[in-house]
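Notes from the pairing session

We agreed to fold both candidates in a single pass and log them together. This is the raw record for the first candidate, unedited. Please don't reformat it; downstream parsing expects exactly this layout.

Candidate A
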Amino acid sequence: MATQEQIQAIMKIRRKWQAEDDQRDNDLPRVFDGVERTNDLQYGDDPQWNLLDVYRPQKRNGKLPVIILIHGGNWCYGSKETYQYYGMRLAQRGFAVVNASYRLAPDVVFPGELDDVDRFIHWMVAHANEFDFDLENAVLSGDSAGGQMALQYLTTWANPAYRKLFGYSRPAITFRAGILNCAPYFMLTQKLWPATRAYFTDQVMTEKKVMMATEESFTDSLPPLYVATANQDFLRDDSMKFAGFLMAHHHPHVAKVYGDDQHSRQHDFMISQKDKLADQALDDEIQFIQKNLK
């Protein structure tokens, strides 16, 4: 059970970050030109949090490569609404996009949120024909906490021994790339905020170390990875450390730091729809994705 300190920290984050997100996304349209959106499809038992949207280009012919989004929010904030504009921008580029909410701390502890990721990925596999998903060309993308979960889920998909720890069955989907934006890595050595400890509790950190140590279950079967951060991202050094880890393992990847002293960028700047450098980051990631599709 979360402590009063943790709950207060979570409520402070939710108020502050919601105000920042509302300001960032002010005046954006509910539907982007050329995009068809299907909203609030229930993929699990929770009618509030187990919901997802599907965005697709209105003009399409046959199956579409699919990008699955995992929003960020320190495991205690956010929803699919946080990512809807970013997702529609991807749909404008010719992708089907699955954008899901999931349960948050303190209502769940690790690995409850990843369990929801597993649920909505299995849901999209089951509904692939209905939405023209090309399951042979899938991408898993996440920002911040969502990036941590994207890497973790890709590792369960690629490594049978690691997947067994979570009790997941391998979905019938082929991930061609992973997009990791401003994510934390090496979670066992992270200095966790009080709000974060409502999800990664002391018990979790003691009893589930093998599950938490995603990088120790690294396998060459992981798809190519795009590791992006910003020059003023408080997690920038995490991204650079992980890029070095991938380099040491000779794993295909691209690592980029956006922004400079004259044009600084902060954590998660990529999801802004009013930032030209965010547009460039999106172009770079799409180029990386297209290079790795079959």
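Candidate B (folded immediately after A)
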Amino acid sequence: MKVIAALGRLWLVPVVLVAWEVVTRAAEQPFFPPPSAVLARMHEMWFSGPPSRLLLTDGALADLGPSMARLFSGWLLTAVIGVAAGIAIGCSPRLSDYVNPLIQFGRAVPPPLLVPFFLALLKLGTPAQLATIVFGVIWPILLNTIDGARTVDRQHLETARIFGLSAAQRLWRVVLPSALPKIFAGLRLALSLALILMVIAEIFAGTDGIGYRLLYTQRSYLYPDMWGCIVLLGVLGYLLNSAFLLVERRVLAWHRGARQTT
């Protein structure tokens, strides 16, 4: 039933595809190919491989493999750094006063503007791309974690102290569970930003990946291929967000149950 309900919410997708097909065929503009041509190129480039590889072609492995590795590596690295730093800052008002100006300054700097700096510092390739992703996605994780740590119920902390829990035990049993909903909100936003910054990093500092493929097709005037890259990125964003929501629902099931009982 849940699958049927989910499919029912996607009724707008075929409507948009049909409208796109009709409009582009009527306009006959080479810059805006019909979705039938785009999907045919996507199938040819990425999804016409052998069943043993889930229909993925060599081109799909060459484009998607490095991109997904960079996306998840940058996102996971940022999650560890952002959550650890956010808990420390959120639990220490004095530390928060010291670093808050730096946080506000850093989050105001657009990450794409720092790509030339990372290129000069780390040279062309994965290190510069990972630096771009980490710098761009750390802010929602860090700020949400700080807010989550600050808003822990003081009565819960006092109760933990009365029962003799150590600082480490209070961190793992009180602070982290209380801050987890906001941490997950930051992680979800960071995941979508990581996809965007992955593409930007590969366009400006890459030699492979879906972002580099997008740049190559645009410069070569391969418009069906270019639109195929854009559609693929949109599908990847949707799938990543849906998968994250499934994990979030399972991990935070206790939180929803506690809210319903109250």
